[in-house]
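Quick one, tokens below. Sequence please?
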């Protein structure tokens, strides 16, 4: 199993960039697809981005496509979310999660497909 721990959140202005990091403990990190979700106040958790086990496949929600990029370094047990051109509507708690579901190139997008979750990191974008 793996235990994700997010870092890198903070308060930024609209148009700024921010990079979130997720460190995942465990020897089997490369066996897991990794995903990023976010949850704004009084809203449900939504999928943001995901990356397959080897990093060959990525998938993004329409709301962040072409602004956010996810990557991973399996040698370091790390996954990243580069967020550019941030908007106030990106304000949320961001979660990193690990999934053992699916084939090598598959990117799970459903919350229930993820097995292990971090505690989340707050991102606040002011206008």
């Amino acid at each position: 199993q793996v235990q994700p721990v997010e870092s890198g959140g903070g308060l930024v202005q609209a148009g700024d960039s921010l990079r979130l990091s997720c460190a995942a403990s465990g020897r089997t990190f490369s066996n897991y697809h990794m995903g990023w979700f976010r949850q704004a106040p009084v809203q449900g958790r939504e999928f943001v981005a995901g990356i397959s086990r080897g990093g060959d496949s990525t998938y993004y929600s329409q709301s962040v496509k072409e602004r956010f990029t996810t990557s991973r370094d399996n040698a370091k047990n790390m996954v990243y979310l580069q967020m550019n051109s941030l908007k106030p509507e990106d304000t949320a708690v961001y979660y990193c999660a690990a999934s053992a579901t699916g084939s090598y190139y598959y990117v799970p997008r459903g919350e229930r497909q993820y097995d292990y979750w971090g505690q989340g990191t707050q991102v606040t974008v002011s206008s």
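Residues 37 and 47 are 4 Å apart (CA to CA). The first strand starts at residue 3 and ends at 7.
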